[in-house]
Amino acid sequence: MNDFSELENDLKALRPARHSPVLFERIEEAMAEDRRTSTAANDQPFSKSVWRRFMENPFRFGVGLAAAAAAIVLLLARTNIDQTRNDDKEIAQVSPLSQTNPALPAFSARSGVDGSTSSNKFVPSGATQVVYNTRNEGLQFADGSKQPLRRLRYHTQQTWQWRNPSTGASLRVSYPSEEVVLIPVSGQ
Amino acid sequence: MHNVASHEDWKSCFSEIGPGLLLFARQWTRSAADAEDIVQEAFVKFWRRNHEINNRALLYATVRSIALDFIRRDKRRARREATVLADADPAIEPQFEWEDESQSALAAAVSCLPQDQREVLVLKIWNELTFNEIAGALGISQNTAASRYRYALVNLKKSLQPQ
């Protein structure tokens, strides 16, 4: 049935070379070290272990942060829409009485830019971009170009901040980003 | 079912699978020491993630993945080693323990097989994986694994026939 059974038996009789006896000790040591490291990581305060995990895989956190940022934006948008509806209602009631300046309060509250009476006004208060990794991906030629370009990939963490001057509340959105820059390389 | 993490006597477990794992890792390395480094890293990684030792396909896939990373990391060193080892006596670091001339010839024939056939043969004969497990470990279909195994045996038979 099997033409190769004899050959297979010969192969099975051939024993692989034994590993060095030191390998056992090395694995044991590596396992003990790994156990120590994981115990130490568990003993760390929450912020440290979160930071450690972030450093191990920032992009996993990036997805979470992006989701959180999207949720905040949606929440704000919803709040603004609700506010706008209320304002519209007020305008509809007020406008027959005040013919002189009906649109100003609505604009201020709705846009959140100018209304000193609005509590929903958030003004930009800061933006940072931290480059935490740069990778040189070598030289390449762009389409139709005879000059080589060096391709650099930056991994950054961008943070945007807004502040409400009247209430002191602040809003911060932070997310990882990736940027590829092509730098022309001269032959000189 | 038991896993490496909860397995008190992992040494007996490793004694059982160690030589086969090492032989598998040797497919990509020029020296036994490098293969031992790869096996150590893979075994500890496997243990750390609390995988079941019965999931052999995953264990061998881990060895393979670490071995391929090793090659990429040390391309320059591998080239240097290749140049040195090309002139060296291949019997300095044998992959098998042979007892007579016929076994020596068989071991040499195995090492001359194409890479894709040799890794299937190593997993099948000395690690006793099923074709299904081999397919899982190498990321190929079960039929491909079976046909590579058959080609390996055909090639071995051919090379062992007296001229």
Sequence-ordered SSE layout with sheet pairings:
The complex is a heterodimer of chains A (about 190) and B (about 160).
Chain A lengths: L4 H9 L1 E2 L5 H22 L2 H11 L1 H37 L9 H8 L11 E19 L6 E16 L6 E15 L4
Antiparallel strand pairs in A: 2-3, 3-4
Chain B lengths: L9 H16 L6 H17 L7 H18 L1 H13 L8 E2 L3 H11 L3 H12 L4 H8 L3 H19 L3
Helix pairs in contact in B: 1-2, 1-6, 2-3, 3-7, 5-8, 6-8, 7-8
Question: Summed up, what is this model?
Answer:
Chain A is α+β, with helices and mostly antiparallel strands and 188 residues long. Chain A is built from 5 helices and 4 strands.
The overall pLDDT of chain B, averaged over residues, is 81
- Can you tell me the number of structural domains of chain B? 2
Taken from the alpha-carbon principal axes, the silhouette of chain B is: globular
Q: Approximately what portion of the residues of chain A adopt beta-strand conformation?
A: 25-35%
**Which two protein chains have the largest interface (Cβ within 8 Å of the partner's Cβ), and how many residues from each?**
A-B, 23 and 36 residues
Give a quick account of the main beta sheet of chain B: strands, pairing sense, barrel closure. none
Number of helices of chain A: 5
What topology, given as strand order, has the largest sheet of chain A?
2-3-4
Oligomer: heterodimer
